[in-house]
Amino acid sequence: MDAPLQSAAADPLVASAAVALSALSVALSIAVAAVLVRGYRRGPGRAGILYLAAGLLLLTTVPELLRIGLPTLTGVGTAKRSILVSGFELLGLGTVLWAVYGGGEP
Description:
- The chain is mainly α.
- It has one domain (about 10-100).
- The protein is built from 3 helices and no strands.
- The longest helix is centred in the N-terminal third of the chain and has 31 residues, at about 10-40.
- The model has no long low-confidence stretch (mean pLDDT about 85).
């Protein structure tokens, strides 16, 4: 028995658009990270590019999946979910900064 898509939004079109935009956000961030990893494998192998790819995934993909997955699959409340999402976004920003400013490379 399939359950219909339920949302707090009054208009099903709004709920469908939100899901589609979330899926697009995840797909694009994974695609950009894949391009970065491919560039790393082709080039001289600078670790900064891998840090950039990881930071991008932590900044965009993981928080988006948490926003959708946690309320769907668990009973985690709004406050805990917000803390987890913000934590991963900050970790992603830190990783991107590490990559940009050359942390760990001579």
